Amino acid sequence: GAGVSQSPSNKVTEKGKDVELRCDPISGHTALYWYRQSLGQGLEFLIYFQGNSAPDKSGLPSDRFSAERTGGSVSTLTIQRTQQEDSAVYLCASSLSTGGFTDTQYFGPGTRLTVL
Amino acid sequence: ELKVEQNPLFLSMQEGKNYTIYCNYSTTSDRLYWYRQDPGKSLESLFVLLSNGAVKQEGRLMASLDTKARLSTLHITAAVHDLSATYFCAVEPDSNYQLIWGAGTKLIIKP
Hints:
The complex is a heterodimer of chains A (116) and B (111).
Chain A: E1 5-7, E2 10-13, E3 19-24, E4 31-37, E5 44-50, E6 65-69, E7 75-79, E8 88-95, E9 106-107, E10 111-115
Parallel strand pairs in A: 2-10
Antiparallel strand pairs in A: 1-3, 3-7, 4-5, 4-8, 6-7, 8-9, 8-10
Chain B: E1 4-7, E2 10-14, E3 19-25, E4 31-37, E5 43-49, E6 55-58, E7 61-66, E8 71-76, E9 85-92, E10 100-101, E11 105-110
Parallel strand pairs in B: 2-11
Antiparallel strand pairs in B: 1-3, 3-8, 4-5, 4-9, 6-7, 7-8, 9-10, 9-11
């Protein structure tokens, strides 16, 4: 079946511009996660959505970052007034999240963001 | 503070050798995940370990979990070049719906 998809795959923008990154999770997955991965580094948690609950935004690095998830499916991560330090690969993952646990997270291919 | 520590962070080895990657964590957890990431690619789930003493094997990779020691190991047997990748472990604190990630172990296997 279809996996997690993300768009665009690459985004080059100028400093100060706003960008929107999109994630389509696996159908039926209630949990959706956004991570950031800088070159050669591990994963940095950004935000987590679970069903209709309020999202866990504890990982967002600044108020320039925001995300929404419409209809419990597609999610958009928005970065306003981009800075060069925002350059990274942004990964989206989804999971079934049943039985009180997160379950295996399935990752999308990522969006590589470059801020000039 | 919740921490997941992997070691080594970098490993270069010859084909045919055996080696072990270690994942230590600081919180109570009964669920631990191993993922693989190829260069320029996204993460792929390898193993889910759900209880103390759990052991999973796939090909030349075997993962185990000791929740009392807060330690998981990923053992590579008779390594082959196509196992070259970065391996991440991730721990789920009890009933927390999130994963705490290790920094990753970059594994290079030379022919």
